[in-house]
Specification:
This protein is of the alpha+beta class and 440 residues long. Strands 12, 13, 18, 19, 22 and 25 form a six-stranded mixed β-sheet that branches. Strands 3-2-1-4-5 form a five-stranded parallel β-sheet, with helices on both faces. A four-stranded antiparallel β-sheet has the order 6-9-7-8, with helices on both faces. The longest helix is centred in the middle third of the chain and has 21 residues. Bound molecules: adenosine monophosphate. The site of adenosine monophosphate has 17 residues, from strand 7, strand 8, strand 14 and strand 15.
């Protein structure tokens, strides 16, 4: 079987790694891939959003199944194009990808389907948005409706902050077109959990629940990032919660999308804020695997991943995944100095020859120069995942392996994070979980 994985980040490295581990004989191409995927697949020098060239490559390499990682090519209609050419694709078409590409659409779907979520209003007019902010209780969350690389949500403690955020989007156009439509919503209290379901539009096969950490610094401080670390499984994702999420979130969302003529097939990601009373409030939907959630979720899948992608691509229910019992995964993101605002790029990376048992380092923002030297090419450089029989073992492996690099820590990131991690029914509060080390 010949696979094409579209994308070039840590998520796609983890996808290639998991697919290869499960199927040693499968042929994998990755567009564009990265130096990590190069060890597992044939990298094709084609950007993930270059629809025409990806379609041509699928033809040229006789690809049987295309798995699309990032949201941008999905929103641009890559899956539609490939399906129209008769190819098997795991990933939604552009109409269904709007569940992520337009937060205004997503809120509309949730309202129509009765999915629990924060009260909100959508605006294109600055004055109307400012008036709404002035009339609603703090805190508020202001979101650019369009795709903003995971950075378009601003949690505002005060109305004044919310007004500034609205002004930055609708007035100053700091988020470009993505911020020309703005959603202002109530702040939700609770515990976040990311649920990823592989679905043909009817049946949902959930991957282990994950929790990611979006703030840059210790103690949930600093700006939002694409994600600084993650772990799975999550103790609050009890069978009861998963049951409620399927019934109250996934099924109504899929039904409403189908009703609108936008049936969803692919990985539906529900970012939940679980309220103290157990209500699975939706913070956001994504139309693909999360990053860095993928880097902790896929190492826990022991079998059935390729079969699930193939089944949904054929329009069939995904078979059950085999999940490693009694296993935990923690990933630490190593970010380049200056991330997320102005990450330094181009620094050479001294990669260890090998990693200890239970550790895998996924390349996220690396490249090889013409001499073959590995260099930093993006803000998030590696996601170093540790897997263990306990959460603590997985965490220790991730941290120890991340620390083996020739690293210079970012002064702002030197202190250890103390956000809350939960595992195996216990709350592990206020303990170092991972660090925002930086690669120089
Ligand atoms: P989003 O881009 O919508 O996933 O938001 C990014 C992050 O902002 C989420 O992971 C939450 O931590 C936070 N957030 C977004 N919306 C809300 C909300 N309504 N209440 C509380 N936190 C939120």
């Amino acid at each position: 079987m010949r696979l094409l994985v579209v994308g070039g980040g840590g998520r796609e490295h983890a996808l290639c790694w998991a697919l290869r581990r499960e199927n040693p004989d499968v042929i994998i191409c990755c567009a564009p891939g990265n130096p990590g995927t190069a060890e597992l697949a044939t990298n094709l020098a084609i950007a993930a959003d270059d629809i025409d060239r990806i379609a041509d490559a699928a033809d040229m390499y006789g690809i049987d199944l295309v798995i699309i990682g990032p949201e941008v090519p999905l929103a641009l209609g890559l899956a539609d194009r490939l399906r129209a050419e008769g190819r098997l694709v795991a990933g939604p078409g552009a109409a269904a990808a709007r569940i992520e590409a337009s937060k205004a659409f997503s809120k509309d779907v949730m309202a129509a389907a009765g999915i629990p979520t924060a009260a909100s209003e959508t605006f294109t007019d600055l004055e109307a948005a400012l008036a709404y902010v002035a009339e609603h209780p703090e805190p508020l969350v202001v979101k650019a409706s369009g795709l903003a690389a995971g950075k378009g949500a601003i949690v505002c403690a005060t109305r004044a902050e919310a007004a500034t955020a609205v002004q930055s989007m609708l007035g100053d156009r700091q988020f470009g077109d993505a911020g020309s439509v703005v959603v202002v919503e109530a702040f939700l209290v609770g515990e976040e959990v990311s649920l990823l379901g592989i679905t043909d539009g009817h049946t949902v096969e959930l991957l282990p629940a994950a929790q990611d950490h979006k703030r840059l610094l210790e103690g949930d401080q600093g700006p939002n990032t694409g994600g600084m670390g993650a772990y799975a499984p999550v103790s609050i994702a009890t069978p009861e919660l998963l049951g409620r999420a399927l019934k109250e979130v996934f099924t109504p969302c899929l039904e409403e999308l189908a009703r609108r003529g936008a049936p969803f097939s692919g990985v539906l990601y529900a970012g939940l804020m679980v309220a103290p009373d157990g209500t699975p409030n939706v913070v956001e939907f994504n139309c693909r695997l999360g990053d860095p959630e993928t880097e902790v979720v896929l190492p826990l899948v022991r079998g059935g991943l390729l079969a699930a992608f193939e089944a949904i691509a054929r329009g069939e229910a995904p078979p059950r995944l085999e999940i490693a019992p009694e296993s935990f995964a923690v990933t630490t993101v190593l970010a380049s100095e200056g991330y997320p605002d102005k990450p330094l790029k181009g620094q050479p990376i001294d990669l260890p020859e090998s990693f200890p048992h239970g550790v895998v380092a996924f390349h996220a923002g690396t490249t090889r120069d013409v001499q073959g030297v590995l260099r930093v090419s993006g803000g998030r450089v590696f996601a170093v995942t540790g897997v263990g029989a306990t959460f603590e073992e997985a965490q220790a492996r991730s941290r120890a392996a991340g620390g083996r690099w020739q690293l210079t820590q970012h002064p702002a990131c030197r202190t250890k994070w103390t956000f809350r991690w939960r595992s195996n029914g216990q709350q592990v509060a206020d303990r170092p979980a991972t660090s925002a080390d930086s690669v120089r």
